[in-house]
Amino acid sequence: MTKISFGIRVPNSGPLSGVENIARTARKAEELGFDSVFVHDHVVWSTEMHRHHISSGAHEALADDQSADFYEALTVIGYLAAVTSRVQLGIACLVMPTRNPIYAAKQLATLDHLSGGRLIAGVGLGSKASHSSNEFDVFEVDFKQRANLTDEYIDAMRAIWTQPLATYKGRHLSFEDAEIYPKPLQRPHPPIWVGGWTDYAARRTGRAGDGWVPGWLSPKEMARGAEIVRETAAEHGRDPGAITIAVEKLAVIKRDRDAALERAIPTVRTSSTTYERDVDDISFALDRHIFGSVDDVKRRVEEFVEAGVTHFELKLIYPSIDDLEEQMTLWADEILPLYQD
Question: Could you tell me the fold of the domain covering 5-339?
Answer without folding.
Answer: TIM Barrel (3.20.20)
